[in-house]
Automatic annotation (TrEMBL):
Region (Disordered): 21-65
Biased composition, class Low complexity, residue ranges: 34-44
Protein name stated in the entry: SHOCT domain-containing protein
Organism: Streptomyces viridochromogenes
Compositional bias ranges of the Pro residues kind: 45-57
Domain SHOCT, residue spans: 66-93
Length: 95
């Protein structure tokens, strides 16, 4: 039994030493690579700008659309004549 314990202890020491050495080598290599490699911003070109998402109508455009709808309703109700409708429509679209 003492020979078995001695063998297990020796194996544990060897394995522990190997792990410690391996970890130290890994840390040293990582340190060297960090010194050699440029910073990520320098290494790669900046990504291209993303395509703009289709924009919702501008607030003034949506208000113009609402005004045109109201004008159309007034024309349908007979409140506005065709000429008055055309004049008001041009004012809204050119503003």
């Amino acid at each position: 039994m003492p020979g078995l314990l001695r063998g297990v202890a020796r194996t544990a020491v060897v394995a522990g030493t190997a792990t410690a050495v391996s970890n130290r080598v890994s840390r040293r290599q990582a340190g060297r690579w960090a010194q050699q490699e440029p910073a990520p911003a320098e290494q790669y070109a900046p990504p291209p700008a993303a395509a703009p998402a289709p924009a919702a109508p501008a607030p003034d455009m949506s208000s113009k659309i609402e005004q045109l709808k109201e004008l159309g309703q007034l024309k349908e109700q007979g409140v506005l004549t065709e000429e008055e409708f055309a004049v008001q429509k041009n004012k809204i679209l050119n503003s």
